[in-house]
Amino acid sequence: MFELTIAVNFEAAHCIRNYPGKCNRLHGHNWKVEVNIYGCQLNELGMLVDFVDLKAAINGIMVNLDHYYLNEIEPFCRINPTAENLAKYIYDELIKTPIFDENVKLRSIKLWESPNSAAAYSQEA
């Protein structure tokens, strides 16, 4: 099995509605997104997926988050833009891209909201 991981960054503000502490106030993060994919078959170039293609796919999602107030965009105008919900949102959007097929699978999205705090989402138990 082959596994690839890339990381991208974006900046965005949010607040956690009804949170009983200071995170209920508007604040921002320099978010880091780690994308982990896997598969067992390499292409004719000896690659699972070209890093350029994987970065383009995730960057297509980042343009909808970078430098936004997350509480104002779908679905976060309805649900809290927590690290957990953001990780799942990114996973759900990325899995729709044509990179993934019967061989190339998305293992997980890990979202860092600070150097010491991250949430991850996968569909694996």
TrEMBL record:
* Listed SUPFAM superfamilies: Tetrahydrobiopterin biosynthesis enzymes-like (SSF55620)
Where is Zn(2+) annotated to bind? 14, 27, 29
Q: Which InterPro entries match?
A: 6-PTP_synth/QueD, 6-PTP_synth/QueD_sf
What is this enzyme's catalytic activity, as reactions? 7,8-dihydroneopterin 3'-triphosphate + H2O = 6-carboxy-5,6,7,8-tetrahydropterin + triphosphate + acetaldehyde + 2 H(+)
Q: What is this protein called?
A: 6-carboxy-5,6,7,8-tetrahydropterin synthase
> How many cofactor units bind, and how?
Binds 1 zinc ion per subunit.
Cofactors required: Zn(2+)
Which keywords does the record carry?
Lyase, Metal-binding, Queuosine biosynthesis, Zinc
Gene3D superfamilies (UniProt xref): 6-pyruvoyl tetrahydropterin synthase/QueD
Q: Which family does it belong to?
A: Belongs to the PTPS family. QueD subfamily.
- Provide the GO biological process annotations: tRNA queuosine(34) biosynthetic process
Q: Which residues form the active site?
A: 23, 67, 113
Pathway given for this chain reads:
Purine metabolism; 7-cyano-7-deazaguanine biosynthesis
Species source reads Pelosinus propionicus DSM 13327
User: Can you tell which superkingdom this protein's organism belongs to?
Assistant: Bacteria
Enzyme class name: lyase
Its EC number is 4.-.-.-
